[in-house]
Design goal:
six-stranded parallel β-sheet; four-stranded mixed β-sheet; 10 strands; 39% helix
Length: 232
């Protein structure tokens, strides 16, 4: 599989290293030196690539999506903080007969954590004395707060529990990422927690999504990838 890396920071470099270990080829790297290029100009860099993986900034998502759609290259979108533009991005992909998979978090463990949270929320919804809350911690370089993962957890909880679940966000030091979902009642508290030890979980999930998306058309979430795996 020939991969185009859009963004060559810490995540991009890690994805490149893990992808090559899996036998894939990094066929193109688009970094900050290409930031001034238009979406159409970027397409020339995507030629002959089977898939692109984007970990850049929220402001760069739209032109990166447009470039991949024009080039006919499936895109794995790992950047967060652009959810307000989700409907526009969906339309770009649909109108251009493109292919994209995105996720608030590409960690396999986090996506299993989503399912644990969903099941737990169903249980606690039957007991009104419990209130849900969400906490997240990340390194000080992460710009969006709360994280996309925390917002996804809140969305999952709200499917079952009508009262608003507050999110507490911390940015400090070098924390790779910690998320907690709690259910607090008068007599006790139940706490679910996912702690990332490194960025390898996110990078590995992005490569998994890239392997899955090649040959498909449409707009997907990483949960769709997980659903297919879990059904096997």
């Amino acid at each position: 599989m020939k991969i185009a890396l859009i963004g060559h920071g810490a995540m991009g470099k890690l994805i490149g290293s893990l992808a090559e270990e899996k036998g894939h080829t990094i066929a193109a790297v688009i970094d900050e030196d290409d930031a001034s290029l238009s979406a159409r100009d970027l397409t020339s860099k995507l030629a002959d690539c089977d898939v692109a993986i984007d970990f850049t900034t929220a402001a760069a998502v739209r032109p990166n999506v447009e470039a991949c759609v024009i080039a006919g290259v499936p895109l794995v979108e790992g950047t967060t903080g652009w959810n307000e533009g989700l409907d526009d991005i969906k339309k770009i992909v649909a109108d251009g007969n493109g292919t994209m998979v995105f996720g608030a978090n590409f960690s396999v463990g986090v996506n299993l954590f989503y399912r644990i949270t969903d099941f737990s929320s169903q249980l606690f919804a039957k007991f009104s004395e419990y209130e849900a809350f969400i906490e997240e911690q990340h390194h000080s370089r992460k710009k969006d707060a709360p994280s996309g993962t925390a917002l996804k957890l809140k969305e999952i909880v709200s499917h079952h529990i009508s009262s608003d679940s507050s999110i507490a966000a911390t940015r400090a030091g070098n924390i790779p990422g910690t998320h907690r979902v709690g259910f607090d009642g008068p007599a006790d508290q139940i706490l679910l927690e996912h702690t990332a030890r490194s960025r390898e979980g996110f990078a590995g999930g992005a490569i998994l999504a890239a392997e899955w998306i090649v040959g498909k058309k449409g707009f997907y979430e990483f949960g769709d990838v997980m659903d297919e795996i879990l059904k096997k």
